[in-house]
Automatic annotation (TrEMBL):
Gene3D superfamilies: Cupredoxins - blue copper proteins. Monomer. Residues 89-193, 243-313, 366-486 form the Plastocyanin-like domain. Keywords: Metal-binding, Oxidoreductase. Its EC number is 1.16.3.4. Residues 33-50 have a biased composition (Low complexity). It comes from Streptomyces venezuelae. Residues 33-71 are annotated as: Disordered. Belongs to the multicopper oxidase family. This is Multicopper oxidase CueO. InterPro entries: Cu-oxidase-like_N, Cu-oxidase_2nd, Cu-oxidase_C, Cu-oxidase_fam, Cu_oxidase_CS, Cu_oxidase_Cu_BS, Cupredoxin, TAT_signal. Signal peptide: none annotated. It catalyses: 4 Cu(+) + O2 + 4 H(+) = 4 Cu(2+) + 2 H2O. The keyword Endoplasmic reticulum does not apply.
């Protein structure tokens, strides 16, 4: 936990500001400062826009276990500073990393095969590692106040007693998570099971994790961080701006992650050809969904299949983005797929992917209201008109019960999204209507447009203890849009 000396030093350095206040940002940024930190009103001088489709998109490295203890695979991971050549030419960029990789590595785990990870903090700031979407004991959930101090280690236990899901891990140290994640502290954790492995979906080299995010760079190629910055207009795929990715003329399974602090993507192929969505945050949908767009708010994942056999060898097709702030020439194109060869393709997409159990009759219902001050230099952010207080319990939940939550974005202009720790839930309604096919599976994060309401249902039957629920736009959580539920 954050100790008394750490808390006191924060309070003194900020003139006694509350631990939920935005006034912490300059201090904490100074402790972590490997690059440019600014205020939202005084952005750093921008770097020149990189030329598109000149560099290949790298595959994310796969992390291998160092051994086994009993039935558990054991990993050792080091959080450390590093330098990455993100922009072509000129200086490399200072980043914060897991094992020196920007973005972090991919861990492949199996249901009912536990994983133990020793996280070694070799940074100058506290960290807390949250396995997003996972059902884990409370002492391994990465509570924002339960931090790994610089120079120390922490062991996290992941029982993996849940079905397959494309999880991801990221920093969650309160008041630091936004900048720590922005500077690189995130990675992927693909949990699989027998149901998923039995399907004839693309696999091996034809299953590709793509972590998407935005960034802003100063004129020295350094990441410029400002709280709530809406000028992050360089798009990165697996850590490279606007890359190309060479593919064969066959089906590919693309595991998409929106690792941005707050940007929402709406992804399309430039020729409007179909994309088959087969999964979301909590794993496979019950049936494939053919669409021409994939929408992902911060923290959401989508599992899609694109059939490149429709294109002749030599074709390039751009993955575009049709939403968000920034000039279209900077935020309108993400990466380009280049079809460079033919290949045998034994994969196929079954008509049925999985079976989800029927929802039980809910034991209770509750409402949650997200709101942020619209205007002012340091706007507050609230759940049910309260800023986050780690000492307060906001929702008391009886173990082994099911609840329906009605979540509302009370803002007229600001977007939010909503993430529940511990559980995967089902979306019942969006704006009074049944959810679309893309939200028909298990979810842990949902987008809420201004004024929008979403109803969801979750079953709390895995662990007892305290867990968070919050907006997963990191800067909103930093400002106080988080709350605590106690399952007992």
């Amino acid at each position: 936990m954050i100790n008394r000396r750490s808390a006191l030093s924060v309070t003194l350095a900020t003139g006694g500001a509350a631990l939920t206040g935005a006034g912490l940002t300059p201090l904490l940024a100074a402790r972590a400062r490997p690059a440019t930190t600014t205020t939202a009103n005084t952005p750093a001088a921008p770097a020149a826009a990189p030329e598109k489709f000149r560099r290949p998109m790298p595959l994310l490295p796969e992390k291998k276990p160092t051994g086994r203890t009993g039935k558990s695979d054991v990993y050792v991971m080091t959080m450390q500073p590093a330098r990455a050549q993100i922009l072509p030419g000129g200086p490399s960029t200072d980043v914060l990393t897991y094992d020196g990789h920007f973005p972090g590595p991919v861990i492949r785990a199996r249901s009912h095969h536990p994983v133990i990870i020793r996280q070694r903090n070799r940074l100058t700031v506290p960290t807390a590692v949250h396995l997003h979407g996972a059902a884990v004991p409370p002492d391994s959930d990465g509570d924002p106040m339960d931090v790994i101090e610089p120079g120390t280690d922490r062991v996290y236990h992941y029982p993996n007693r849940q079905p397959h899901a494309p999880l991801w891990f990221h920093d969650h140290a309160h008041h630091l998570e936004a900048e720590n994640v922005y500077r690189g502290l995130s990675g992927s954790y693909l949990l699989t099971d027998a149901t998923e492995r039995a399907l004839p979906l693309p696999r091996g080299r034809y299953e590709v994790v793509i972590a998407l995010r935005d960034a802003r760079f100063d004129d020295n190629n350094q990441l410029a961080y400002a709280m709530g910055d809406r000028a992050r207009n360089t798009l990165l795929a697996n850590g490279v701006p606007y890359p190309y990715f060479q593919v064969a003329a066959r089906k590919y399974r693309l595991r998409l992650l929106n690792a941005s602090n707050q940007r929402r993507f709406e992804l399309r192929l430039a020729d409007n050809s179909p994309i088959t969505q087969i999964g979301s945050d909590g794993g496979l949908l019950t049936a494939p969904h053919t669409t021409d767009r994939i929408a992902l708010s911060a923290g959401e994942r989508a599992d899609v299949v694109v059939d490149f056999s429709r294109y002749p060898v030599g074709t390039g097709v751009v993955l575009t983005n049709t939403t968000g702030t920034g000039p279209a020439e900077q935020i309108g194109e993400v990466l380009r797929f280049d079809v460079v060869r033919t290949a045998h393709d034994p994969s196929r997409i079954p008509e049925r992917l999985r079976t989800l159990p029927p929802l039980p009759r809910p034991d209770t219902e509750r409402t949650v209201v997200l709101r942020m001050d619209e205007g002012g230099e340091h706007p507050g952010a609230y759940i049910d008109e309260k800023e986050y207080d780690p000492q307060r319990v906001d929702a008391r939940i009886k173990f082994n019960t099911s609840e329906v939550w009605t979540v509302t974005n009370a803002n007229a202009r600001a977007e939010h999204n909503f993430h529940l720790h511990l559980v995967q839930f089902r979306v019942l309604e969006r704006a009074g209507r049944p959810p679309g096919p893309e939200e028909s599976g298990l979810k842990d994060t949902v987008h809420l447009a201004p004024g929008e309401t979403v109803r969801l249902q979750a079953v709390f039957d895995s662990y007892r203890g305290r867990y968070l629920y919050h907006c997963h736009m990191f800067e909103h959580g930093v400002r106080g849009m988080m709350a605590t539920m106690h399952i007992r």
